[in-house]
Amino acid sequence: MGRIQSIYSFSTVDGPGARTVVFFQGCPVGCIFCHNPDSWNFFGGEEISVTDLMRRVDRFRPFLPSPPGLTLSGGEPLAQVEFAVEIGKKARAEGWHVALDTSGYGSRMDFARVVKEVDLVMFSIKHPLHQERITGIKLEPVLENLRFLAGLTVPVWLRYVLINGWTDQPEALKALGNLAAELPNLQKIEILPFNGLAENKWADLGWEFRFTQDQKPVVTEEDIKEAERIVYAQMKAYRASAACMAIRS
Ligand code: SF4
């Protein structure tokens, strides 16, 4: 059994192609920009068995391209390890392509168990240097799990939310480039613009949203392009310098 917040039948922004998304209930990360704050409460949402969940997502399968995609998102799937592992096993056995959308926050052992049961890991780095400024968690366990991924063959997407004044510092983007360069299995980097669409959800919960109308950062397409330029340039430089060091030694 596990707890879910919701199921989205058809999404084109939660992994490759069109997919069904299961949003897990419960998240310990506490991002100040969270688009889904009603998923934080570990006792909220709906309790459901893996069998019933699979029965429900199977209804959407005929409308998805083949192989059908299923993304485990949240909330934080790593906070319900057994549930995530069992869904991954069952879904893959039934022919689904399974992606994990995660903040990477969890013990190494839990992370390894879940990652083993999926076909793609979408890893959201919140801030590669000062994560504590925008979340309630420490950075080190997240980086350890990311480094662990570098030793596996499972494809990885790195995701990063660009927030002007919060995550757009050149040194942060360069640090992101270095992390990306260390992943031989990196398939894609997605730099996503901050959007303040969750403001009402925060208000409904009675919580203060940091980015209200007058302080809402506006992230333009140009900002995204510039961030991508810095990240890719740094990635290239890092790999070139690593290759030089390898030749010298
Ligand atoms: S990890 Fe995701 S669900 Fe959790 S607080 Fe951050 S954005 Fe929200």
Polypeptide structure, described:
By secondary structure, this protein is α/β, with parallel strands linked by helices. The protein has one domain: TIM Barrel (Alpha-Beta Barrel). The chain has helices at residues 50-58, 81-93, 108-115, 140-149, 170-181, 199-205, 221-248; strands at residues 2-11, 19-24, 46-48, 69-73, 97-102, 120-124, 156-162, 186-193. An eight-stranded mixed β-sheet has the order 3-1-2-4-5-6-7-8. Helix 2 links the parallel strand 4 (69-73) and strand 5 (97-102). The model has no long low-confidence stretch (mean pLDDT 95). It binds iron/sulfur cluster (SF4).
Physical arrangement of strands within the biggest beta sheet: 3-1-2-4-5-6-7-8
Number of helices: 7
Enumerate the distinct ligands: iron/sulfur cluster
The low-confidence parts are none
What percentage of residues falls in helices of 4 or more residues?
25-40%
Mean pLDDT: 95
Distance between the termini: 52 Å
What is the name of the CATH superfamily? Aldolase class I
Order of helices and strands: EEEHEHEHEHEHEHH
The 3D shape can be described as globular
CATH architecture designation: Alpha-Beta Barrel
Provide the number of structural domains. Answer: 1
User: Major sheet, described briefly?
Assistant: 8 strands, mixed
Q: For this structure, what is the CATH class? A: Alpha Beta
Strand content: 15-25%
CATH topology-level name: TIM Barrel
Structural class: alpha/beta
How many strand elements?
8
Alpha-carbon Rg, integer: 18 Å
